[in-house]
Amino acid sequence: MDEQNFVKEQSFFNGFEDRAHLIRFCIACCVLCSLLLLSLGSVAFLLRVWGIVIEGNDIKVSAVSDKRVAITEIDATSEGISFKTANGGSVNSLIVPANKLWLNTNIFVPSGATISIGASGSITLDTSRILQLSRDPLSLPIEESKFIVGPDGKSLNEREVNERQVDKLRGALSVYPDKPPGTLLAVVLPESSQPPNRNNPRPNGIVPVGNRTQFKYRNPSDTGGILYLTVNDFIATSRSEDKNQWLLKTEDPQQWEQRIRESYREDFDTVVQGLTNRWDSIVQAEMWEAFFEDNTGYLLVSVEISTD
Questions:
Q1: Residue 283: phi, psi to the nearest 5?
Q2: pTM for the complete prediction?
Q3: What's the pLDDT tens digit per position in 121-154?
Q4: What would the DSSP string read from start to end of 236-287?
Q5: Which CATH architecture has domain 90-234+294-308?
Q6: Domain ranges of the chain
Q7: Cα–Cα nearest to 122, from 92, 153, 167
Q8: Over the stretch 191-214, which tens digit does the pLDDT of each residue have?
Q9: How many C-beta neighbours within 10 Å does residue 205 have?
Q10: Quick one: which of 52, 96, 103, 83 has its CA closest to 226?
Q11: Which helix (H) or strand (E) holds 90?
């Protein structure tokens, strides 16, 4: 075979192989498109069967059930996610984010009703500390431990209360000063009252929940209220008293210096300057919920309302 005919024959086979690859590629695309259309069709069918309604950023699901549990409604909004079971509409399960100051559960509680709340799961507090610790292990308080806690504020590993000495000294900054950071809290407020938020972070009637609690809600005006949930953490303000609390400051300069040296590994001036810079940056940016926004994770909370 001469060289010219050999080149032509090789070109013929190369072209055949190229066409074979192209055919296989087209077949694969057709299969993928068919699967995509089938999936979209299945999703649309399930949306109709499950009764899912999508309204902007809100998603509502109704009539979902199986042999183990019957869920009558799932409500996913910017506030959080809640599930209502088929037990007379009285049992609700909610996903409470650790970075949310006072989640409005939209659960109405009649006056005189008994509220039973149980919680599980874990959250991570102050995630910036973990990043800082990885960069500079000597830059954080001596008692640096227990970042991941349960709804009772205890470490999941050691089951100890997550109360560092510096957290105790700054307790007045917390939503509930008498409980460690991460503790699940609840409050029921009349619909006509000011909702709990950064301007009203410590409303009257807060109940520590922890893993489980039960309490009765009574309103003198005999009107019901709305249940709110949050985890315990610090609230930033522009008040000089709160800044001094953050700085662990006391009237006695020597006691102040001793507090800093007992809690931190660096010298007094360096620690105070770093704490001052962080607080001032929070106030300047008006990030009053900065300590909440630094948390990650969710708690699964079950709420049962009984009027008997």
A1: -65, -45
A2: 0.69
A3: 989 887 776 665 555 555 555 444 457 888 988 7
A4: --S-HHHHHHHTT--SSHHHHHHHHHHH-SS-HHHHHHHHHHHHHHHHHTT-
A5: Sandwich (2.60)
A6: 3-50, 53-89, 90-234+294-308, 236-287
A7: 153
A8: 888 999 988 999 999 999 999 999
A9: 13
A10: 103
A11: none
